Amino acid sequence: MPNKLTVNGITYDVSLPDNVPLLWILRDEIGLTGTKFGCGVAACGACTVHIDGEAVRSCQVALADVWGHVTTIEGLGAPDNMATIQQVWVDHQVAQCGYCQSGQIMNASALLDEIPEPTDQDIDDAMQGNLCRCGTYPRIRAAIKDAAHRIAQKV
Amino acid sequence: MGRTKTIARRSFLIGSAAIVGGVAFGIYQVNKDAPNPLVAGDGEVTLNPFVLITQDGITLITPRAEMGQGVQTTLAALAAEELDVAWEDISVLHGPPAQAYYNSVFLGFAIPGAHYKDTPFKHGLRQQVGKVGKLLDLQGTGGSTSMKDFYERMRRAGASARETLKIAAAKQLEVDVAELTTQDSAVITPDGTHIPYSDLVEAARDVTPPDVKLRDKSTWKYLGKPMPRFDMVGKATGTAQYATDVKIDGMKFATVRMSPTRNGMISYDDTVAKEMDGVEAIINMGDGIAVIATNTWLAIQAAEAVEVIWAQAAYPADTTALRAAIVASLDDEPNSVVRDDGDVTAVVSGTEVMAEYYVPWLAHTTMEPMTTTAHFKGDTLEVWSGNQSPTATRDACAKAVGLEPAQVTINTTMMGGAFGRRGESDFSVQAALIAKALPNTPIRMAWSREEDIRNDFFRPAIFARFRGVVKDGRAAVVDGKIAGPSVFHISSLRQQGSIPPGPDRLHVEGAADQPYGIPNFRIAGHLTDIDVPLGFWRSVGASVNGFIFDTFIDELAHTAGADPLQFRLDLAGAEHAPSTAVIEAVGEMSGWTGSTPDGIGRGVAFTHSFGTPVAQVIEVEDTGNGIKINKCWIAADLGVVLDPKIVEAQMTSGVVYGLSAAMQGEITFSDGIAQQENFNDYDAVRMHTAPKFEVRLLENNPFIGGAGEPGTPPSMPALGNALFDLTGIRARELPLINTFNLIL
To answer: How many angstroms separate the CA of residue B524 from the nearest CA in chain A?
Structure first.
């Protein structure tokens, strides 16, 4: 029986086994390849998306268990209409290889929703599940703080 | 906003002057003043296209792979500086594999002697020898060579294109070319009219590109400044395309399980696997199996369900046996002695220091596991591969599927990290073979993380024995023996089928080539004949010897009762001024006093590698709950800093990569198979364990140095030396977590 899945505001009928992880539905079935595969065991965070606003590792959520609306990096903002946090990422030139950055941004975005002015400790706690082999951590930290500042100014 | 182009195949008719819809400017006249006799007679005078102007805009071919190092942005800036093109008008494209894009630096490494001793003559010699790479179609991204390679080449391409456009405009307007100027992608006439470059395509076709003098550094608009990277928007919005993101109608998804003993497969049973959900085919790859399915995850599940009996490894089966073989090779005659100053056998009075060091096997673990997309149509093969070696990848894929190289199209995509791993062609060839098994069906192949670690080409384990003598506060003798298997030999055999002649300099780089004046200084390389699959790992030999050599220097300093920073300054003092300057700079930046309060440790380290001297100070703190790294100060001298924001990122990135390995990186073997499987047992520095950074870039170096790798080597000894300062325990083996209570 097909499962219904709402991603970035669009509802899809997905005819794949119930146990296929959300990550692979997004990438191979729907074609939203901004969400990346890094480990498959929730150890790297490259596959982070939001379900009803909560940051989750999409490699660990089976299709049948998706409990709400999914937002991916593509749903956060597009190149010609970037979300504040994406613009900040560009301005700070955070990315190197960039492969982990979708996950970093989705995780940071959820952090800022929960804690609008995160401390260094908050950032350490929230972001340590997101691995970056290029070591972009200092710029990620600076970008999160700048994003917090810019979002606060807009409100 | 500038942008990264993904596919523009129509643009490439290499060797043809007429390019549909545009005109390509070459730099073939670059060699006119100094023709390379080895190139003469080749007869293949093709235009070497770097600048492509179409009616749509300006595309700069930046033929080095973007693995995160920002190379395409700085290569574009080099051409744009001379071309007078507005930044937002530029598109960048890696381009196809081509001789025109050969690496002109790689072969220069074979010239004997430490790089820091290079004179202008010797530097020129390296450059001339490097040009032989053209004959070998040697296109590759690595060895921190891109800026050395293109610092002049890319600017000449831009300058030549600019003057060609001016000549074209002069003919069209019937004015003297000297009356024309250029600005913001347009030729400007004496009356102030702007003629966009794109309007000059037709007129420029018949112009012979002139040879042009390069502009003086003082006039630079783009170079030397932080430029917006072309890949940032794509990477912040999930729209940057990696090989694993290619979408083609009718595509199927595949994965492989290749022999983790690297010695083939005896048999397999796919009875269960082939009945699993989504599985379309299971292929015998000879030394492993591939599964094709309707979804990558289903393919991975089925691949794991295949029962395979692997052949025994051809190398010693476990870490202990491998280590014993490495240690034993110290008893053999050395394979190289590339540094032998004074006489280390002479009797020198003073205090003797003996130490043995060991560093483990390492994996690369790029964030993106190996992936390739391939489409085989009988007489053509198209491959999308994040790779560092496009010509070798093309040739290997062609050979594997029985086509000529000209029938194979290679699209070099962005890479989710490389660090040397993507210089290999194995993953591209696998996708090509799978695609051939299902002709006309596009195949997107992705490895699991477990496959990625088990089937890596590893950084070798190395064992070293050092003897030194200090006298009157100075190093009087350093006699080092470095033993282990040769990355250079093993990878050369695998990739080219033979071992290049001469000593293996990479095996001892980071030690034998250091800019230290030690009266009696000898470094011997001992090569262990074991056939573990090895590959280039960020900073290669210096990733090993940076730790070993600098740690030994630190031991000598402490034995001598000298300040470790001053001790290094004294060693470099008479030998290499740029090195002295970075050591002084890092001392000043960190407020180095030589003493630290209780609970705090500081270590200094220095390595000259890839043409760039780098000094670092690392501070560690005992929190009472484990040791954490507080801060890392970096001073580096690349001669010319083409983009300070990108170079800073490369320096800190190199340190994080090095610290990850130093703290906890270790591959162990059992039954000939790497035991680590994923980030839970092969982890790296994360947000909470990354230090704060302060970076200073100097420009005293007479030649341009590399950026991607030289940050890595000194990070490991800087941490070990800091831990010694904190605890009094000398770190002689990596990873440090086996000895110290580090916070992970």
So the answer is: 33
